[in-house]
Specification:
single chain; about 140 residues; mainly alpha
Length: about 140
């Protein structure tokens, strides 16, 4: 007796279904890889925006403008100055608004805490502590 995998499909149907299965598998792996890449990219971008790191972004913007607009050296220095001043203004605004954002986040955490069961609260508090520690490391 000859047993084939999968046992439910006769020989000809199995031969026809393997290429389809392969294409579907490749498609699903592509979705998975793309999703992972986007998640990591946006996580890095959001962390960068929230933490206020922007020096490399400033330089990237200057380089892009210089390249696409074909700026001369003098124009590039003036544009670099404008972008740097703007970045510093935004940084100042961020430091002013950060305490207000912290209050809103803490209120939300308290509200979520009241919804949770005792065992969930313990895990949630550990999650918050881990996140705060991560932020402290980034600030230093």
């Amino acid at each position: 007796m000859n047993i084939r995998w999968p046992a439910l499909l006769p020989g000809d149907e199995m031969k026809k279904s393997l290429p389809i299965f392969g294409v579907v598998l490749v498609f699903l792996l592509g979705i998975l890889c793309g999703s992972l890449a986007m998640h990591l990219f946006y996580k890095y971008r959001m962390d960068s925006i929230i933490s206020g790191r922007g020096e490399t972004r400033e330089e990237a913007l200057v380089n892009r403008l210089s390249r696409e607009l074909k700026l001369d050296d003098h124009q590039e220095e003036l544009v670099r100055s404008v972008i740097h001043e703007t970045h510093n203004e935004i940084k100042g605004l961020r430091s002013q608004i950060h305490p207000q954002i912290q209050v809103v986040i803490e209120k939300a955490q308290e509200r979520i805490n009241t919804i949770l069961k005792p065992d969930q609260r313990e895990i949630y508090m550990q999650m918050i502590a881990k996140h705060k520690e991560k932020l402290r490391k980034k600030e230093n």
